Amino acid sequence: MTTSRSTPPRGGPAGAARARSAAREPRPAYQCDACGHQPPKWVGRCPECGEWGAVVESTVTGPTVSGRVVSSRMPAEPARPIATISAAPARARPTGVSELDRVLGGGLVPGAVVLLAGEPGVGKSTLLLDVAQQWAVNAGSPSLVVSGEESVSQVRLRAERMGTLHEQLYLAAESDLASVLGHLDAVKPGLLVLDSVQTISTTGTEGVPGGVTQVRAVTAALVSVAKERGIATVLVGHVTKDGQVAGPRVLEHLVDVVLHFEGDKHSSLRLVRGVKNRFGAADEVGCFEMHEGGISSLADPSGLFLTRYAEPVPGTCVTVAMEGRRALVTEVQALIGATVAGSPRRTVSGLDSARLAMVLAVLQRRTERLTLHDREVFAATVGGIRVVEPAADLAVALAVASGGLNLAIAPHLVAIGEVGLTGEVRRVGAVPRRLAEAARLGFKVALVPPGCGPANTGAGPEQMRVTEVTDVRSALHHAARASAE
């Protein structure tokens, strides 16, 4: 009878010791410094994002589960009944920039961290320099602007042009996190503006400045300091080619508010759009205008998106678009070109090209007098605003029909509604708010989807005639009748 025995490790007790030591020693690992992907071995080009030379070696420990039971301990601050907790520390303080306060939900909360992302040159630094100036004037505490991309002299030149030279506004040019924290100790600001977070690095973390590891570590440290000292902090972030916030997605989870600063370099209009907000609504939009002296809030931006004509012009129609909770009266223009052989061009600016193609197909199929399949069509909005919501379909259809038939639509008419493939006009949201904004600007006639008139919604401007239209044909009929009146 044989007795089974376990096979001893090779090398005897010394081999077992070496095996245990190898299990505890760090093993090499590789991580892309651009996107965070972890390939199994080093490669010259990251297989996830395609960046060359971004894969670096890091070290991770072996097993992370020790099997030990975590014991409880007394917390630093015991839990309290919710009714005994004061909400005063979380009250927002106005920044002095009305449109930014609108998006933030009333202002900046002490200890809150805001991430403002936008394309280079859109005006992020200009806006935040104005915010820092207004904070220094009105909040009673200093504001600190730390620039990692410009020198203090360059920021000073911009401040002179804008007139933001308050004695409580401090400037610093740093790219090291420890130096930034040193400035916080010296100035003790109520507002910190860091431009930008991708330029700051810390010596205790691997990776290059702007890489995933560095950006994550810097942001986590700044969030911790902001919460501990009650400093309202605004971090400027870069964006990728598709307009998303650059860096790891964890940044958007670390901060309290995420804002996108949008605008066309060829237009003076700028929009600050809320994406995430722990202290207010996340669908607000603030409007600004860039000019030689800096940037200013636009409380009533609808005038930028309209053209005043001495006489009605064919190829135009007005709609009311919703940007967040704000209604903006917007003009849509269409130009119908000559007949061409082959595939005619369909060019848009500020509109959705796919929806324009659908509207053209509906007009070609559902109306008798329009022939568009062999004609070039150009459609655009006025003022640089981008309107992609389906509620603008009816205005686009009327503008195209007006240009194709060479019949001008009445300048006091607005059209609101989504157009379906069968030619029907579908309901859209926030119609009472859209009609109220159009009536405020002096429009007298409105074409809306069925069920959206005052008789059905119980709300509507008394000075405006609201007509419900069921399809594109009836919309064209009522638009022509309003133009003849």
3D architecture notes:
This protein has 485 residues and is α/β, with parallel strands linked by helices. The chain has helices at 12-24, 98-104, 124-138, 152-162, 177-187, 212-229, 250-254, 353-366, 393-405, 431-440, 454-457, 472-484, and strands at 27-32, 55-60, 113-118, 143-147, 169-173, 191-195, 232-237, 257-263, 269-277, 285-291, 294-297, 316-323, 326-339, 346-349, 375-381, 413-415, 418-419, 425-426, 445-448, 465-468. It has a nine-stranded mixed beta sheet with strand order 5-4-6-7-3-8-9-10-11, with helices on both faces. Strand 9 (269-277) and strand 10 (285-291) form a beta hairpin. Helix 8 (353-366) crosses helix 9 (393-405) and helix 9 (393-405) packs across helix 12. It starts with 11 loop residues before the first helix and ends with a helix. The model is unreliable at 60-67 (pLDDT under 50).
Topology:
Layout: H1 12-24, E1 27-32, E2 55-60, H2 98-104, E3 113-118, H3 124-138, E4 143-147, H4 152-162, E5 169-173, H5 177-187, E6 191-195, H6 212-229, E7 232-237, H7 250-254, E8 257-263, E9 269-277, E10 285-291, E11 294-297, E12 316-323, E13 326-339, E14 346-349, H8 353-366, E15 375-381, H9 393-405, E16 413-415, E17 418-419, E18 425-426, H10 431-440, E19 445-448, H11 454-457, E20 465-468, H12 472-484
Parallel strand pairs: 3-7, 3-8, 4-5, 4-6, 6-7, 14-15, 16-19, 19-20
Antiparallel strand pairs: 1-2, 8-9, 9-10, 10-11, 12-13, 13-15, 17-18
